[in-house]
Amino acid sequence: MSLTSKAAASLIRHAPRQQLPALRSTTATVQKRSRADDAHHPSASNAPFQSPFHRGTSNSNDTTVIPSFAKYKSGSESGNKTFQYFMVGALGGLSAIGAKNSVQDFLVSMSASADVLAQAKVEVDLASIPEGKNVIIKWRGKPVFIRHRTGDEIKEAEDIDWKSLRDPQPDSDRVKKPEWLIMLGVCTHLGCVPIGEAGDYGGWFCPCHGSHYDISGRARKGPAPLNLEIPEYDFPEDNALVIG
Ligand code: FES
Please, which residues bridge with residue 145 across strands? Predict the structure, then answer.
């Protein structure tokens, strides 16, 4: 029912009884005209809704259509690959440089500092040590005995039947120059510092438990199981000794 027909029906329902015939005639005329208008303009009542927006896959203006990037594409396939290879190579090179620097920094941080390296070696002026005397120096926190041996002491050290000792070692294996005996001053029993020019063999004596060492520093008596240790050393010049 159209809007005009509804209005006419409402007017008849609420009109006084005396006016009903006239009103019915009038409303009938209006309804006829309304129907004629409806027939003349079908879009006003029954036409389907037409959206102003174009949606749907069949329309070229549809917003769901995938846009084309053809104009951004490179015309050359080999040019693309060259660029890709360049980028991969450049990033690989940068990564390798970064890794190398990281490893290098780590290794530098792990190496000994300058003051530690300075303590690793000790230089001694041998000209200041007279024959037949002992000198004790400190090297890496340990005492080092330096003995300037006499000719008699060298002969005594060499004449011993070293094969019968508890730690068999010839004197020639313990010295680089026969007159200079260089040893760590640490008892091989439990680590005390032996006393020089003492003991039954004219070498060193450890008072802690009574170990005796001869003039070559070899264990001869007492609980010490091994000879006194020989550190690394060298003679860069005639009267110069470098320990370490
Ligand atoms: S520590 Fe030298 S004899 Fe025991």
Answer: 136, 183
Tell me the catalytic residues. 209
CA of 194 to the centre of ligand 1 (A): 8
Tell me which residues have their CB closer than 6 angstroms to ligand 1: 187, 189-192, 206, 208-211, 222-224
User: How far is the centre of ligand 1, averaged over its atoms, from the C-alpha of 141 (Å)?
Assistant: 19
Q: What single-letter DSSP state applies at residue 179?
A: T
Per-residue pLDDT of the chain (244 residues; tens, 9 = 90+): 555 556 656 665 666 666 666 666 666 665 666 565 555 554 445 666 666 655 555 555 556 767 777 777 777 778 788 888 999 999 999 999 999 999 988 888 877 776 776 668 899 999 999 999 999 999 988 999 999 999 999 999 999 999 999 999 999 999 999 999 999 999 999 999 999 999 999 899 999 999 999 999 999 999 999 999 999 999 999 889 999 8
How crowded is residue 160: how many other Cβ atoms within 10 Å of its Cβ?
A: 17
- Tokens standing for 95? 């990564």
Tell me which residue has its CA closest to atom 4 in ligand 1: 209
**pTM of the predicted protein model:** 0.56
Kindly list the structural domains of the chain, giving each domain's residue range(s) and its CATH number in brackets, ordered by start.
Answer: 122-243 (2.102.10.10)
Task: Give the pair of three-digit tokens for residue 168.
Answer: 């068999």
